[in-house]
Design brief:
With 71 residues, the chain is mostly helical. It has one domain. It has 3 helices and no strands. The longest helix has 20 residues. The protein starts with 6 loop residues before the first helix and ends in an 8-residue tail after the last helix. Pfam families: YgaP-like_TM. It comes from Ruegeria arenilitoris. This is Inner membrane protein YgaP-like transmembrane domain-containing protein. Keywords: Membrane, Transmembrane, Transmembrane helix.
Length: 71
């Protein structure tokens, strides 16, 4: 498993993951009252945080994308 997620990409993924988790759990918005949106946002938020932490995105591997520097 080689790294394929760069620093800026990781930062954006972590921020998006945290925002989605916040919106789904704490915001109280009507949109997130529906279970589909609430649990969907939680799942996507967790996936974003995991890919940011592990510096690896399986979808990037399938598409041949690499946003990190090669050394």
């Amino acid at each position: 498993m080689t790294n394929n997620v760069g620093t800026i990409d990781r930062t954006l993924r972590a921020a998006l993951g945290l925002v989605l988790l916040y919106l789904a759990i704490f915001s109280g918005l009507a949109l997130f009252a529906a279970p589909v949106f609430k649990y969907g946002a939680v799942i996507v938020g967790i996936i974003m945080l995991l890919t940011a932490t592990m510096k690896f995105c399986p979808v990037y591997t399938l598409l041949g994308i690499k946003t990190c520097r090669t050394r």
